[in-house]
Amino acid sequence: MHRIRSKIKCIEKDAKSLHMRPASFVVRFCTQFPKTEFKILRTSAALPPHLAAANPKSLLSLLASAFQHGETVVVQASGELEIMGCRFLRIILQNLSGYADNIKKTQTKIFRRIDRAFERLRDPDLIESSAATAFVKRPTTSAKPPESSSVVIIDDNLHRLSLATLPLITKQFAGTLQIGFDHPVLGVRMFTIGKDNGFHLDDQIFAADVVAGTRITVNTSGRYHQQAHDAVRAVLLNLRQCDAWLRAQDTALDHPATIARLIEFAKRMTLLDVRPSGSTKTLSIVSLLSPNRVFINAPGHILYKNDVLYQLAAPHEVDFHLSIEDLLARVQESERKEPMILREGFAISHTALPRRPRIAFSFGVYPDGILWGLDDKRVSLVAMSLFAEDCYGTWRAHLRQIARVFHATPDLQQRLVASTSPQEFIDCFRLAEMQMQNM
Questions:
Q1: pLDDT one-digit tens code per residue, 128-147
Q2: Separation of alpha carbons 66 and 89, rounded Å
Q3: 286-437: what fold?
Q4: DSSP assignment string, 316-333
Q5: Distance (Å, rounded) from C-alpha 76 to C-alpha 20?
Q6: What is the pLDDT of residues 83-111, one digit of tens each?
Q7: Residues spanned by CATH 3.30.1340.10 within the chain?
Q8: Which fold has domain 147-272?
Q9: 84 exposed, middle or buried (CB, 10 Å; 0-12, 13-18, 19+)?
Q10: Selected residue with higher pLDDT from 305 and 273
Q11: What pLDDT score does 141 carry?
Q12: Who contacts 241 (Cβ-Cβ below 8 Å, separation ≥6)?
């Protein structure tokens, strides 16, 4: 057995930990030594087994260990060529910085340093084995398919509708796509889409409930790897807008022309995006509002619950080309099953729809109050929320946002009910959201 200390250097433009692309390179290196067992050990004793030691021949083990840039570890090798394998692995771990940003340049630097180390190496096993010479020569002449890789932080939950476009984009460029992420419950998950599996996305990803803010590693290969990478990256970077764009289309979503227009839209959104690198868009209720979705009713205007539901549903009928009869039937059924009063005097009607809208709200102010719910509580503020069936998690996130805004601004409900115009209502809500973000 041979051991040696090493510092991991793996910083990237968008990452400070050992992610999938450089980790895959480490795995490919270690598998060149079939008769050598490798381990990367952390020095701390108070760690669970999966964090205390990693098997660098296993991509899952490497990613689950979540090694950070600058971390000091112990590289261990046992078996044939253990001295050479241990020292070469240390060279790799110390030179992974910038790997995903420029794979060819980083690999060239690593192989050059391995060559120099090999010239000075004294390993007794070299007398009986030619495996080392084969390894040093092979990487510089391998015909590895060209690849592009990066890390994206998504700004929306991964919904079934938007996920379904990834196989279509990959097929359009006749390549292979691999996406990976670290799930808080399921651990590291990786999915591959390509010709070998008929451009099929494993259904297990739909059950993962990948939420906004998740870091997703994107890797594409094939003749048009860069174009495919840029397309997938643009869609994931602007997931919220792309998801809404898809739901607004009347054409078949699996048509090549629709996918081409989606890619063009996503790239245009990327050019318009001025967020700092690595940031996500802040969830906002007021961004979903416009004057035609806010109703300010004067005192003395007598309305009943069904009148209110019709009033709040009317703008959605126009904006999303819905049947108001079907919409009202769905809302009323949801009301019968689960009337929702968020706080005293404030009710939220809701329903799920097959495809669109992704998420939508309308608000109404009723100064004289409306009898609401099974116990006939009187409310003066009512919202109608609609969401696509595959966007339940996104809808719940917006409800939490509403609750946080009202909790942070105790007199917000009173100020909204006192609004004299839709624009005043929107401005009041916008100010409350901004104040909460600055707390």
A1: 444 444 444 444 444 556 88
A2: 17
A3: Mannitol-specific EII; Chain A (3.40.930)
A4: HHHHTT--HHHHHHHHHH
A5: 21
A6: 888 988 999 999 999 888 888 888 888 88
A7: 2-141, 147-272
A8: Histidine-containing Protein; Chain: A; (3.30.1340)
A9: buried
A10: 305
A11: 43
A12: 265, 266, 269
